[in-house]
Design brief:
With 210 residues, this protein is of the alpha/beta class. The chain is built from seven helices and four strands. Strand 3 and strand 4 form a beta hairpin. The longest helix has 31 residues.
Length: 210
């Protein structure tokens, strides 16, 4: 009986270590491609971030498209002189674009600021053509805005990541064997993210603010 108990404990320990290794590998893969969660404002729980990053890593492995979510308590000091309330849409669009470019992201970036409150979603040039359209962008933005207004931060993150994966599945389907390797830019292509610009009339600015 004692030996059986020890064997059971050993198996349990091995399974736990394996699960931890899988989480660490998934998180490392996500960060290596620029994808993942950076929650400087502290909106999300540790559990929600871990789950989301695992999903994001799996999505990137399957479709070669990354999702990055960054939250900030305030505008960083090196950007405050560029901000004016009258041009906040252009400011946050430029900020999101520059962050995506800096980390080499190919896909979608969500930038959330607590003060001033603002939610910005930017989609890469190639990505918005088919994989994740501007209509998809508007929907993921609305999911997050609604959840944040209700202070359901973890739920909002989960809904956004799940929607990102299901949208890629619906728009792209199963990637073929000749699909471009994840993280590799298309030959001669433009940078992953589009240049920042004012929101079009079809995208109400009110919906972009938390």
């Amino acid at each position: 009986m004692l030996e059986e108990h020890e064997m059971h404990e050993t198996r349990t320990l091995h399974l736990w270590l394996l699960a931890v290794a899988v989480v660490l590998v998934s998180s490392s893969m996500a960060r290596a491609t620029g994808a993942g969660i950076q929650d400087a404002a502290g909106f999300f729980s540790t559990e929600a971030i871990t789950t989301a990053e695992q999903q994001i890593a799996a999505i990137h492995k399957k479709f070669g498209k990354g999702l990055r979510v960054e939250t900030y308590a305030t505008i960083p000091t090196d950007r405050t002189d560029q901000y004016t309330p009258e041009k906040r849409t252009a400011f946050f669009a430029a900020w999101a674009y520059q962050r995506a470019k800096a980390i080499g992201l190919d896909g979608v970036i969500v930038l959330i600021c607590k003060d001033p409150p603002f939610l910005q979603v930017e989609v890469g040039d190639r990505t918005q053509q088919h994989a994740f359209t501007l209509a998809n962008r508007d929907h993921i933005r609305d999911l997050l805005a609604t959840a944040f207004k209700q202070r359901h931060f973890d739920d909002g993150l989960q809904q956004a990541v799940t929607y990102y994966g299901t949208s890629l599945q619906a728009n792209v389907g199963e990637p073929g064997p000749g699909a471009r390797p994840s993280g590799a830019p298309a030959p001669g292509g433009r940078p992953s993210m589009p240049a920042a610009q004012e929101s079009p009339p079809s995208t109400p600015q009110l919906n972009r603010s938390l």
